[in-house]
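Batch job 17 of 40 flagged for manual review because the log was empty.
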Amino acid sequence: MRTPTLSASTRRTVLALAGTAALAVSSFAAAVPAGASTTPTVYSKGGTSWVRSCATLAKGDTMSCQALRVTSTVQAVHPLGITPNATPSGFGPGDLLSAYKLGANGGAGQTIAIVDAYNDPSAESDMAVYRSQYGLPACTKASGCFKQVSQTGSSTLPANNSGWAGEISLDLDMVSAIAPNAKIVLVEAKTASNANLGTAVNEAVKLGAKFVSNSYGGPESSADASYDTSYYNHPGVVVTVSAGDSAYGAQYPASSKYVTSVGGTALKRDSSARGWSESVWSTSSSEGTGSGCSAYDAKPTWQKDTGCAKRTVSDVSAVADPATGVAVYQTYGGSGWAVYGGTSASSPIIAGVYALAGTPSTGSTPASFPYAHTGSLNDVTTGSNGSCSPSYLCTAGVGYDGPTGLGTPNGTAAFAG
């Protein structure tokens, strides 16, 4: 595995990336007809700016992807490259494996599914560039390693969408980084509705995936219990879901009692024995990892925190801060190498870690696994994503907290049944 490095004195220059998706203020903005004109909203933190990849909802969409695309940065956050669209900036596979104490070349014998909405016509070719850049094995349709299907398993794919293409590239690259020898199935829903994305989850399981990553979310509703039963209740299958990018507040399907809810951190190198440190990802502009107490979904038996009578978000976490983001290669709606963040990064990372830990046993509840191995996680104890009561729902501390759950991977032991 090759990870390009430069001297510590190298500073990253402005990373300007073209995007063709119409973007709006919030991932929960009112539905906007496809093609409507909106002004992109730029968010920032410490000199890094980004936009939401899927903020504008097409008619009928109820879910938004949680991918955040960096548009510019002037800070030397990562020791990787400085030239936009030529050398990748952002954390690469070697960085992520180091931060989370994961072995290289993992995933053999496993199938990981990515569920997203709409189609990315460049998914396979873009993933090939990412994998080649970092010396990862090829994963193609021709070899049987990669499959790209509709929500019904058909080769007739939904309409192209440049915003969701960024999400798809992020998901495929993160699974490639963590579990490069796994097979990958990309299941594309025809719209970003609860029903269509849920149908795509069922199709992913039908196709044999034991690990299904979902990097999308929307407001909770009284219908969530029925969605749980219809789409997310898959014993013996890992279903990871992004906790959200709008700071404190629970989203669905992250609040489903049947999934592993994945929060987000800011990841930085340091001089500690681990070599890395993490804190809650948040900004002053109400951007940051989601967390909170569900208004509708019942509390699973394995979750023991006492400040929330229903399901608490999150379970575990991984890097999501765009200011400490990951390298992604995207050409449909992008112009090559980019830096991405959001809990859309942390969900596929955690799905990949589960795959490294081994296939869950038949009938098991993979979301409960980390709760039986809390000592095998990096406890994140600093940072907050808002104001709340009780405070642990939005503020990190020793042990369990909402924004980062039980912590981040420290090897794979916490993710094995």
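Reviewer: the log was empty due to a logging misconfiguration, but the result itself is present. The longest strand covers residues 288-298. Unflagging and moving on to job 18.
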